[in-house]
Amino acid sequence: MFYKSTRNSGVKVTSAEAITQGISSEGGLFVPESIPELSLEDIKALGGMSYADRAAFVFAKYLTDFTDAEIHYCTDNAYSTKNFETESIAEIAHLFSGTYMLELWHGPTCAFKDMALQILPYFLTTSAKKINLDKKIVILVATSGDTGKAALEGFKDVEGTSILVFYPEDGVSPMQKRQMKTQEGSNVGVCAIKGNFDDCQNGVKAIFTNEDVKAKLAENGKMFSSANSINWGRLVPQIVYYVSAYADLVKDGEIELGEKINIVVPTGNFGNILAAYYAKHMGIPVNKLICASNINNVLTDFINTGVYDRNRKFYATVSPSMDILISSNLERLLYLMTGCNDALIRSWFGQLASEGCYEVNDDVKAKLKEEFAAGFCDDNETKAAIRGVYNKYSYTCDTHTAVAVKVYNDYKETTGDTTKTVIASTASPYKFSAAVLEAVQNGKSDLDEYAMIDKLAELSKLPVPNALAELKNKPERFNDTIEKAQQKDYVLKKLGE
Ligand SMILES: *Cc1c(COP(=O)(O)O)cnc(C)c1O
Q1: Active site residues
Q2: Residues 6+ apart with CB under 8 A from 99
Q3: For a FRET experiment, which of 136, 214, 218, 256 has its CA 20 to 30 Å from that of 397?
Q4: pLDDT in tens, 16-35
């Protein structure tokens, strides 16, 4: 299996090259040249395997330059009860008859990003070795909260790597800040920037291409790499849990082998739902992929009209990880839907960069309608969805998952579709305690962050994840705060250590 670029179909690299490069040199994203197939027999057999072995089975079809031993080294290190609080890794909860919550947040940072970021460090170090890149990998991350912590946990103490995370001093939640300041590991660093998320991100991008920094890196036998969601190494692990969920539902007698299901995904950068699309095209029987957005509803409009227009107001919501106006992974979907037409992709994404807007052709519009449904909701509807599920089914979900619940309820009402449905549940409710507690008790709380967690535990009867419970007693290790102009010198200093 080789990989090509969405902006140049002539590019041909191995998976190890795609994973270490992250993005193609002309700015395109790497995609596999074909989508490998899973038979119904394969899917049935997967039901008898552990999550790590299911993952290894799927990866063997995409990472054909990896040996079996290399793949198992990655999956066994990532998907064990050392890192996840549940044996099944991706847990299925029954909401009500025919509707299932795929809980993807039993990892170390309590959000679905762990499913990919627990394995990415192993993919990266294994890939670097395979292509004889005898260098230490340095990961730089700018974060608005969830990704930074998940990357720190993934890379902590992984041999041959180090990681440095920048976050906006006043731009993350108190719990997210505490998660990062108390980070453990001998190869990690965390620093606050006096500025906003864009300042952090622009700083990181400038450092990646700075000549002084590059020289210093080379001198010390190091190279930069990126842990963000355009890396194929972050997408391929996400395909696994959709395959795994289907295998579990068959194994448990909830569906017949071959029966179609719907999949609902609360969406921001379009990575998670694109993984579901890949799972479908590998052979998982899927009726509709349902794309759920918050009030930043650029994707709802796009799927319904074929016009992508980012020229609109940006809203901060109670589902902050979906507050995104440019969904990078959509580029991969459109490349596939145009039959790998790199010229069209260059033209559309060129228009997006220059005018903030593009319109796809009729053929792609028809395909979008056939495969996807889309909807959105505002913060009040999100909270009402949390309250509704809590009162009716005694189930507590987080704000992102609640957006999916609301959009799914609307979908069912307008279409009358009774296909059994999997809803991707992307974060523990404890990660967004303030909004979840407000929803459940139908009123704001003035408790502090830890007291809110205790209150939510009392009401939800859901165990508090160890990773969050332990935070209260952990020492803070990282208290550096710098001006944005100091970011480059800070990195240079850290690289020299
Ligand atoms: C990142 C994130 C999302 C959005 O996922 P995409 O892959 O960007 O679409 C949804 N929910 C939570 C909790 C997240 O952290």
Answers
A1: 113
A2: 408, 420, 421, 423
A3: 256
A4: 999 998 889 888 999 999 99
